[in-house]
Amino acid sequence: MFNLDSLVRPNIRAMKPYSSARDEFQGEAHVMLDANENSLGSAGPERFNRYPDPVQRAVKAELAPLKGVRPEQIFLGNGSDEAIDLLVRLTCTPGQDSILILPPTYGMYEVAANLNDVRIERLPLTEDFQLSSETVAGVVASEAKLVFLCSPNNPTGNLLHAEAIEQILRGFRGLVVVDEAYADFAAAPSWTTRLEEFPNLVILQTFSKAWGLAGLRLGMAFASPEIVGYLNKIKPPYNVSEATQQHALQALRDAARFEGMRQQLLRGRDWLAERLPAVPIVETVFPSDANFLLVRFRPDATAVYDFLVSRGIIVRNRTTQPGCAGTLRLTVGSPQENEQLLEALQQFE
Ligand SMILES: *Cc1c(COP(=O)(O)O)cnc(C)c1O
């Protein structure tokens, strides 16, 4: 039933991708005069005079065994935000097609759609931020080219029920994009474990959260080799810099640090989740599988937000998001930051 070629925009199917110098010749040569680079070297302390590998082979070779996928099932981008934009552009003809989102959710899906003149269909999550059976049926019936399922969801922190996602994977005709930016903090297995079963599945992950590399800008998409091939066809030729590729390789070889930070952030989440309910202005602490907690405050979350700002503590005000009235999103910080946050909330008046 799922047919990738009929989902991809006709102009993208037909187009010939840019062929870079590094596409046409790979490997080491004595004299490299094919790319108008500067053979003398680089300004600044390090050498970056050569264009990077356009398809990041070394990083993918290191990442594939870690994620339990094949290198040809990996797309790397300038943050997962690049993958979000490319997925919209791959499938949606501007002024004609639509994407489907389930609010409250991550804001970049909407921005990518608006930027590309793509319509947005919305089916809301339930009060406890899950997919009702009506919503699943609505997704399956939709003509949208792709649906974004954020799990664990931002800003709510919860995993979406796996059975609902599976029903969508089996019934929806477009691409099913499961955004797992927070998967490293979640108690459930990643959907990468189900990649071989679903040709319409795309999983997004990122180096920006548990890896602690938000400033590097490196995002991952896992999908069939056919989908990855299309994303590579339409991406800017050198979308991941040499500096980023080198740094990512070093990070991947520092798994102990990653695991240590991950565990510490999970302990910080538990520490906050245990103490916040005792704070008088806290009404609800929503369960979280991410590195943040969505918290409902009474009587006035924005007053709490302003009070925290006055104390030099910045959190995310989510009060205007659908289903999120009265809430702030609190990122789990260092132990000291968590203590400062709790102390400030206890002193609110
Ligand atoms: C933080 C986040 C991302 C990460 O975006 P990058 O561009 O990789 O930094 C993606 N999706 C969601 C839902 C996020 O919260």
Describe this entry's structure for a reader.
It contains 13 helices and eleven strands. By secondary structure, the chain is an alpha/beta fold. The strands form two sheets. A seven-stranded mixed beta sheet has the order 1-7-6-5-4-2-3, sandwiched between helices. Strands 8-9-11-10 form a four-stranded antiparallel beta sheet, with helices on one face. The model has no long low-confidence stretch (mean pLDDT 97). 36% of the residues lie in helices and 14% in strands. Strand 2 (98-101), helix 6 (108-115) and strand 3 form a beta-alpha-beta unit. It has helices at 4-7, 10-14, 21-24, 57-67, 80-91, 108-115, 133-141, 162-171, 225-234, 242-252, 255-275, 301-310, 335-346; strands spanning 74-77, 98-101, 119-122, 146-150, 175-179, 201-206, 219-222, 282-285, 292-297, 316-317, 327-331. 38% of the residues are buried. The protein has two domains: 4-253, Type I PLP-dependent aspartate aminotransferase-like (Major domain) (Aspartate Aminotransferase, domain 2, 3-Layer(aba) Sandwich), CATH 3.40.640.10; 256-347, Aspartate Aminotransferase, domain 1 (Alpha-Beta Complex), CATH 3.90.1150.10. Bound molecules: pyridoxal-5'-phosphate.
